[in-house]
User: Fold ASCH domain-containing protein from Adlercreutzia caecimuris B7.
Amino acid sequence: MDAVLTVKQPYADRIMEGTKRYEFRRKAPARDIDGLYVHIAGTGPYAQAYVGVNCVHTGTPEAIWEYCSECAAIMPPGISREDFFAYFDGCETATAISLAPRPQVLNPPILLEYLGLKGAPQSIAYAKPQQPEIGDYTCPYCGHEQQATYDEWEGSDFEDRTTVWCRRCGQSFDVYREWVAYYTNVDPDPFSMCPGSESTERFRDGWRCRIGGCAAMKED
Ligand SMILES: [Zn+2]
Ligand SMILES: [Zn+2]
Assistant:
């Protein structure tokens, strides 16, 4: 399971650069975590990065500091000794979440709401991402597939076009009713590939590129 953490600067930048290999917490996570979504404290309702988790260490602050700063040249703790002990002042136990190399900067960032959160987590929260939908259309910004809702069409001033927002990344873009209709009759067809989007789908009455903005089309 993945967790979502609010991280202050400059530590969020260091995680994203891969130069902070431990995330320190005053409380140990209650569940096993495979990865962390990072929300930068004081920014909009998004997760800006994702990083895998190697393992979680707990111990006295002294033991954790000794362990995590031992091979600092290879695995920098990403915090000064002074700041580390100030953070754990009054704590009997410290938790170090060992972060995997090669963090992923999310571009565009993912809405916290998509991860199942109502707002920025106070401490640690557990992500419950929405299940993928059989897509009517694909977000051109992040590739998320989703279906147009009734409200999105009802709110449209146009017969055949409406503006929707991606429920994963929050970006808005136009979709066309014609395409939405086609996508209800989708069969994969490995012999038809759009050069623009690598879409390989055949529709009942021919072939259309899955990406709404792409001009490439091929008829049978
Ligand atoms: Zn998106
Ligand atoms: Zn295309």
About this structure: Residues 2-126 form a domain with the Archaeosine Trna-guanine Transglycosylase; Chain: A, domain 4 fold (CATH 2.30.130.30).
